Amino acid sequence: MDKCVLVKQRNALRTDSAMVFDNLWARHWNEWMTMEKPNVFAARLDRTESRWTVGPETNIAAMLPQTSDPLTRWSVDDYTVSPAGDSMAFVVRPPSDNMTWATNVDIYLASTKHGSRPRLLTGRMNGAASAPTFSWDGQQLAWLQMETPGYEADINRIFIYTLGTRKTVAVAYDWDLSPHNLMWSRDNKSLFTVTGSKGRSLIVQIDALTGHRRELTTTGSAASIRPIDDQSLLFVHSDTDKPADIHMLNTQSQAVQQLTNINAQTLKNVHLSKAEDFWFTGAHGDKVHGWVVRPFGFNRRTTYPLALLMHGGPQQASTQSFSHSQWNPNMYASAGFVTVVINFHGSPGYGQNFTNSVRHKWGDYPYVDLMCGVDYVTSRMRFVDKARMVALGGSFGGYMANWINGHTDKFCALVSHDGKFSTISGYYGTDELWFPEWDLGKPWDPAGRVILEENNPERFSANFKTPTLFVQGEKDFRISSTESLGAWTMMRRRGVPARLVYFPDEDHWINRAGNSVRWHTEVLDWITMWTNTSAPYGIR
């Protein structure tokens, strides 16, 4: 901590603002690298008659090997402490020259009582480790582990380390879904996790010895699980038409009890539509999942415009949850749109092969899935007006909006939020090279160049004719602002209707409340204008 103070004091005396980098790990997400790094400290806490006292602190990460580049020193991303407080496990990305194109993230185990060197638990694996958690007796440590180097959407495997024997074993290795987090049962015999499954986030119980699995919930999306006793879990649950509330789950009977209803008064006069599932045949002849959210005041005898929401990733998935981001389907349904969500190829929750299949196929499988899904909906739901359709997406969904613009004119308008326009310039401008290198390739490599160009929306610029709203945050280091600016420039120069909404203080997401209101205002105004739709409320 004293070093951090000295660094700040020296910086305050500087007369220049230059930042000098040799390592490509110069920035990440929305921040430039500095010498200040998150560390984890341990200190003894004692109770005297009248107050608590904190003893001298020990920087656990300081005992790791020192590096020559102060800008890429050890940085602790996460940590957990054993119930007795005598052990700690922490997550770090090892400093190296390849930090922008390697996904290696390690877990170390350390004592909190004395200054011994932390023990590396993941040295034989070069994928990303995450979510360490101690058993309640402190004898075992479980964590999630990706094993494929360079692949950030690899399946998470469960590993358990026994402190007494120093042996590590894999559990439920045959599971074809990817768990998100881990929590031990009170009897230390099983693990609880949340995993994506067919558009839902479900609680699953896993036997720590045999790997046998049991789904404990079946609908909506669960999060933040906490065991109360041997048979009860607290968790947060939401659904497309239900904001998050705290629930209690009996792990034996699987009975669920809602404990809070925080938004009851706020939503007293608010209509929220349920999700209606559908399946159709998409790319490669595979079955693809989607759902429809019907508009407010739905009348089957009336026709409505359609809004297609396209998720990011591509190795992410839309879930039937209540989102507070810009992609809550009820926001568009409330404005009068039949809202369609499709988990195209690449989406997790449908088996790892389905997730892996999108590699080298960004402009192929997802596009085919989306077009087949829209055709399925419009052919079976006669209340959809095929002449009044829009498509919206962020991140990969923004890329897909740009790809759609070069390949079809079936939509009246598009919205591309922080979407990649050129796979070539997008490679050179991003902060994480492992992502485009795994999914597409390297621009200077002949084979990689072919794949990048095959999936490059900019290559089809001459075909862009659909009015498009581009939204971009300046602090987005994942998709550089030049991507949206480039696509907007091209369309305006060619005389195609296009608008840019620029947030100088936002990153890949819209985080500020006022900016979120403005985002929705601009987006809803754009899609209602181009579909000649009158929302049941004033947008501006």
A few lines on this structure:
The protein is α+β, with helices and mostly antiparallel strands and 540 residues long. It is built from 10 helices and 30 strands.
Q: Could you explain the architecture of this structure?
A:
The protein has 540 residues and is an alpha+beta fold. The protein is 19% helix and 30% strand. It has helices spanning 2-12, 329-334, 352-356, 365-380, 396-405, 423-429, 434-439, 446-454, 481-493, 513-530; strands at residues 27-28, 31-32, 41-42, 45-47, 52-54, 58-59, 76-81, 87-92, 106-111, 119-120, 129-134, 140-145, 157-162, 167-171, 183-184, 190-197, 200-207, 213-215, 221-229, 232-239, 242-250, 256-258, 275-281, 287-293, 304-310, 338-343, 384-394, 413-417, 468-473, 498-503. It has an eight-stranded mixed β-sheet with strand order 23-24-26-25-27-28-29-30, sandwiched between helices. A four-stranded antiparallel β-sheet has the order 7-8-9-10, with no helix packed on it. Strands 11-12-13-14 form a four-stranded antiparallel β-sheet, with no helix packed on it. The longest helix has 18 residues, at 513-530. The mean pLDDT is 95.
Helix content: 10-25%
Q: Distance between the terminal alpha carbons, to the nearest Å?
A: 49 Å
Major sheet details: 8 strands, mixed
Q: Please give the count of helices.
A: 10
Please state the average pLDDT score: 95
Q: What proportion strand?
A: 25-35%
Give, in spatial order, the strands making up the sheet with the most strands: 23-24-26-25-27-28-29-30
Record field, number of beta strands: 30
Keywords:
540 residues; alpha+beta; eight-stranded mixed β-sheet
